[in-house]
């Protein structure tokens, strides 16, 4: 017993010592990185060149400071301790430092001015204006040094506030094809009244905010669109990302979990050390940086519920992940004495969880349903029953974990005799699961299925899909191509036999909480049962053929979606396409209103049988219009975020605007988003063509609408994710369904949904 106590004490001492060294190393690395990015686009070593230059000039009997060094010498209290020569040397070094800092500020200001220039986006391919020709080498010169992840942050421009008359004009143009003449006349009158009266007052307040805020949109967007929503975030807000389409690197569940967790933690290490390259847009001759602020809350983050508003909580670091398996929660330490466990060690720990036959504690199995239901009941339960004792300790472990892992007991993927149906079920599983086996509040939850398939579910408030997609691309590539597996499907690496067992979390769930769990689960289950998901890879052609037609692939797909909706519903609708505004500091998204006068004109001509030549001409105009709308959204000249912020200002002032109220209540019956492939260098599609990502998807925004996500993979493939609601008789996600009669009954869970379609319409789709 004495020997055992000594060993435990030694292990504890070694752990504390290792953690102390790790902390000191981390602090030093953070300090060095702060210095490097703080002086960017210059380098810390440039101070030495400035100092040497000043001293060399003084040695040549010249005063480059024009008397400032002498004034500094007079005010420095050094005359008692240094000689006259020493005083002059110190004064020169102080002047050199001040000059160096001034040069850095000037360089940073110049870089910010250069990054504020966006006219290059509106120039036709191969045609560069003289201004852009001068701009390109200047940007390349000032950003030639290898940047850290956050090096560009202080040099990014602030999002500009558009002129109110421009926004109102663009809004009226966007809704013109959707309204009849009397409706458009009424809306124009509302808009003109708003612009000439209340709008100018709201605009002044908004410009005042833009003077002191880093980004006049992002904080309000995060709070009012996401955190203040009191409905379920499952399906309505959270979205999912899928595994490879055709291959699964291993069928061993614990092994896939081991490599996936390791890859995610390696990515976190890159983020913490700022070794990750900032995402940049390629421009002929140079690259333009995008804001990296969303990476800061990627790990160790959770959304905690509140009665009025939720709060995003972020911790600097976490050495464990939270794991759910068959109704039990575990804490899995992923570091040992400051060392990241090997993939094989994590696999071994995961296998211990899989082999654990202990039953869930009373009320534990479906506890996660609290995060899937309405927010107010969850906030009340959390405050009353999870603020002390074992419940608080266990909840803290989940919320402070690096991320959440679900070891699912189902098999998923495109497999078996019904690959198409299984792919749809795979999407639904990632979107909501069983409504209690994911922790929807975490920044993201990783799901590892019984057959080795994987995926993730991401909470939306802290970041947008491209940030999570970048993480997931790295994870999939690192898992398959760098970490790899042994011939029998296990992780590589050695196992330290003395690793402690994963820790079961302990709960004391009273009857009141169990009753609320059941109530939240019923709300979430009804929501999940209503979601109709369809995923399909389109292989007939891709961006390679589209580009040969000299058309933007995104514009081509967006116009195709407009055509599909028109044929499905017999008309046009307000269409949302997400565009990013990360050319600006702390930028999030902007709306591209894809349904334009030009796209409607093309579709009307196509459906009415106009000549091919006329249809081609109209299609080209629609494509160019869409590209222009996308560029305007990216460069801060969008419509919806400006109107949203004006609406928030009106609420703060307690004034009503019929125009803004009507604009913000309009339904987005077609909500679309492209998942960009950002790191094609990680995937060798030439030698490994089966390792194709499926991308991800989200739920429908409107009850009677569609949610469409797509990812353009390589040159010859586009993957689509379509969602709608069974409860709407006018929508169906999988249009390849053949109906035997005009009425179709779909049974999902305890709900029966009825749809009516004509054979002619279904076949036409």
Description:
- The protein has 765 residues and is of the alpha+beta class.
- Among the domains are: 2-155, no CATH class; 230-529, Choline/Carnitine o-acyltransferase, domain 2 (Chloramphenicol Acetyltransferase), CATH 3.30.559.
- It has 23 helices and 22 strands.
- It has an 8-stranded mixed beta sheet with strand order 13-7-6-10-11-12-1-18, with helices on both faces.
Largest sheet: 8 strands, mixed
In the CATH scheme, the class of the domain at 230-529 would be: Alpha Beta
Strand order of the largest sheet: 13-7-6-10-11-12-1-18
The tally of beta strands, per DSSP, is 22
Structural class: alpha+beta
CATH topology of the domain at 230-529: Chloramphenicol Acetyltransferase
Percentage beta strand: 5-15%
Q: CATH superfamily name of the domain at 230-529?
A: Choline/Carnitine o-acyltransferase, domain 2
Helix content: 40-55%
Low confidence ranges = 737-765
Q: Which architecture of the domain at 230-529 per CATH?
A: 2-Layer Sandwich
Count of helical regions = 23
- Overall pLDDT, averaged? 91
Outline type: globular
Membrane topology: Multi-pass membrane protein
Organism: Maylandia zebra (zebra mbuna)
Domain Choline/carnitine acyltransferase: 159-731
Pathway: Lipid metabolism; fatty acid beta-oxidation
Salient structural properties:
765 residues; disordered C terminus; 46% helix; 22 strands; globular; transport; 8-stranded mixed sheet; single chain; Cho/carn_acyl_trans; alpha+beta; Chloramphenicol Acetyltransferase
